[in-house]
Amino acid sequence: MISKTYILQVLMVLVTSFVLGSWQLAQAQESVEEVIPSDQVVDEQIEERRQAIIDRYRQEIEGYRAAVREFRLARTQFGQLQTLASLEAAVQATRRVFLVRTIVLGTYLESVVLRVEIAEGLTPAERSLLLSDLREAQRDLTFHYQTIEEAHDREAMADLADDFEELAPTLINATYQALSYLVLVELRVTYEQARQFEENLQEYHQTLDDGALKRAERNRAYREVDRTLTRAGDGLERIGESLALDDDFHLRRYHRLVENLQPIFADLSRSVAFLEELLTDEENN
Amino acid sequence: MSKKDPEHQTQFVQESPLWQERESLLDPDAEPALVKPWYRRPKTLVMAGVATLFLIIALFWLFGTSRIDQEAEPMPEEILEEIELSPEQEPLMEELIQLRQQLLHSDPSQRRGEAFPPIDLDLRLE
């Protein structure tokens, strides 16, 4: 026989897990609001544009949350009262939330477009593909917005919900495709910079005259650096190829990509630490 | 008095421990049964253990190391800047500092939180 206390304790554990889980989710959602990483190197004009989009997005997402609350309230009241007045209020609240949602998504896509436009490390073909898909998504969204503006009754709201159900996967796909490439190219830039630094450091070391033994030791160290960098480079190329072949991007796929990039990042970190050792070791000897 | 005698049977039942316990429960003047403190109840202890385990998992999940596979620890930038360099090494050191900044910036785990806006994609009036 299960006692009340036992059930209460189980409930307490579940509630604690739920609260912790919700907190983590809330944190993740807050971080989403940082639509563009602040430390991205951009010129002043682009920085102003970036900041303006972030501010607008923050304002709009707040507006969206308020609109959702009103929509839910109006829908519940209509469900309970079933009067013409409550139906009208519910239709208006639905229309408003649809409009605000479209505006928020439009601003978000604008931010992603800007990031793709300024991202270093993208090949022209990749940039063109991403921008083309994002702009198509923006066009679809604009068309959806115009349809909402013309809609005023209950049936039209149902049609709009169906339309959006078809539209959402396109928006999600274009977004995660862009985010996937953006996370990849950051590592690509690091890899290229590391290769360049390795080359420059090697050139500098070749000018030194510090004996055959030291040179042999250094050559062994460079071989190790090269091995680690080559592994990172191969990994980047392999993931780049798989992205080019993929046409189904979503959150889970994106998280998998981030996980798959982690060993490459570890290799790059190791390479940079080796190069740093090679440069500073010169001074210590 | 034989064992089959009903009187004997009644007396036998009344002397049994179960009967005694029943009597004590029915007696309003009897001493109340001792209530065990929470830490002596096995169920509570198990639940406390489970809750602690949940808490540890949750804390590890929240603050756990996301860079476990990162073995190489780069030198702090201030120390790097303090190293005395030859004129030929100075541009290399600047290049290295830039490379390190780019490396930190490119950490994929920083991008894990990025996602499509947190909005309801299935809002319907009915």
Architecture overview:
The complex is a heterodimer of chains A (285) and B (126). Chain A is an all-alpha fold and 285 residues long. Chain A is 88% helix and 0% strand. Chain A has 7 helices and no strands. Chain A is elongated, with a radius of gyration of 27 Å. Chain B is an all-alpha fold and 126 residues long. At the A-B interface, helix 1, helix 2, helix 3, helix 5 and helix 7 of A face helix 3 and helix 5 of B.
- Major beta sheet of chain B, specifics? none
Helix and strand content put the structural class of chain B at mainly alpha
Global Rg of chain A: 27 Å
Residue share in helix of chain A: over 70%
Q: What is the radius of gyration of chain B? A: 37 Å
Spell out the helices and strands of chain B N to C: HHHHH
Alpha-carbon distance between the two ends of chain B: 83 Å
Structural class of chain A: mainly alpha
In percent terms, what proportion of residues of chain A is strand?
under 5%
Roughly what percent helix of chain B? 40-55%
Estimate the mean pLDDT confidence of chain B: 77
* Low-pLDDT residue intervals, each spanning 5 or more residues of chain B: 65-72
Describe the protein's topology.
The complex is a heterodimer of chains A (285) and B (126).
Chain A: H1 4-32, H2 44-81, H3 84-118, H4 124-150, H5 154-206, H6 212-245, H7 251-284
Chain B: H1 6-15, H2 17-26, H3 42-63, H4 77-82, H5 89-105
